[in-house]
Amino acid sequence: MNKLFRLFLNALNIVLITLVYRLVIGASFFNDQFVFISPYLTLGFLITAAYIAGSIARHFGLPSLTGYLLAGLLFGPHLLGLIPQQDIQALELINALALSFIAITAGGELRLASLKNNFRSIISITLSHTLLIFNGIALLFFCVLYYTPLLALPDTVAVLSFSLLLGVIALANSPSTTIAVITECKSKGDFTDIVLSVTMLKDTIVLVLFSVIIAFISGMYTGSTISLPLLFEIMRHLVVSVVAGFVMGVLLILFFKYIDRNISIFVIIASYLAHEFAHVVGLEHLLMCLIAGFTVQNLSRQGPRMIEAIENSHLPIYVVFFSIAGAGLNFNYSQASVIMVLLFVGARTLIVFGSTYAGAAYADAPAKIKKHSWTAYIANAGLALSMLIIIDETFDGWGAVFKSIMLSVIAVNQIIGPILFKFGLGKTGEARKL
Predict the structure, then answer these.
(1) DSSP secondary structure of 381-424
(2) Contact (Cβ atoms closer than 8 angstroms) between residue 424 and residue 373
(3) Contact by Cβ (8 Å): 153, 327
(4) CA–CA gap between residue 84 and residue 154 (Å, rounded)
(5) Structural domain boundaries of the chain?
(6) Predicted confidence (pLDDT) per residue in 366-399, tens digit
(7) Is residue 141's pLDDT more than 70?
(8) CATH architecture of structural domain 96-428
(9) How many angstroms from the chain centroid is the CA of residue 270?
(10) Which of 7, 36, 168, 309 has the most CB atoms around its CB within 10 Å?
């Protein structure tokens, strides 16, 4: 009875704060004179509503972040339309800060000892995913789009381009989602270490693969070919990002060692500065922050203190990040897009399961890795969203179609992915809190 009463109070609280927010936003004097305050009111509303929605999700045995995502999706511009699109865009900086924070967390959770112990499983699953998911999805959709009038793309080059990019998007995962579920469940062990390592390693591969494929597709349209200097430039870009991340990690170590004050706040500030620096210089800020966290954890004794500081401050950041991410998700309801979304999600899920099992079996991994680790690789926001923006801006015409369809795919995967992963963690026995 107490649980039902708390559930009722949570639902009532969401209704009440929604009404208050709607009254304030809809007031004529507010729209005329205080428009600049709107994003901050929206942020406050999202944090409150998403936090309560997270509590409701936990009541049903779901991850909290599922509640955060659904709250953002429900109140966002694509469903109820309570939150205006311009406010979501105004909060992108906070979203980027949170992503940097999560990347530092991911790096801090990677320990050399565990990587060495599970090296064969990590490499085998990563290679299996790279080969089977990318090629399987690309080949499947090339056949579908070439032999059916599903999207009516203009020519074979567009069909090939569309298919290759679908393969890259299918390979990408969501480190932020993986970290959030692991943190909430307080999960530790070989299973956790392997899925986190594979997720981060795959996204590094996706960065390189995406850059090469974009260059290849552009070459098909212009008649040029991928040059060796271009490949060197891509590698230089990644290497410089790694070096910058190492330097950032050393600076974090010095702060933890000699200043030792307001560590949680400093990690948040460092995340913001890392994002701004990477944006100005043109580096991969996720890779940079990942290396920084990895450096602190494995090249000093300050790793446990950094993780403790992160655990003390992660909740509001996760609430903000996933609620804003949910508000930005979109479902496109045209018949062709529905078929594409269902086919993509279904085919990708099957290939993820098969390739994970094959990679784990080849490495003689424990049964729990073979049976359940695939659940960690369904969510695919984060890097995928960044790639969609680039695709939309690079390819006129079908780029917008691609983005629209894949936003719906990401929305579906972000909802079912955390639920599956929490289930997988529960089956392995590594989750300390469910």
Answers:
(1) -THHHHHHHHHHHHSTTHHHHHHHHHHHHHHHHHHHHHHHHHHH
(2) yes
(3) no
(4) 35
(5) 2-89, 96-428
(6) 999 999 999 999 988 767 777 887 788 788 778 8
(7) yes
(8) Up-down Bundle (1.20)
(9) 20
(10) 168
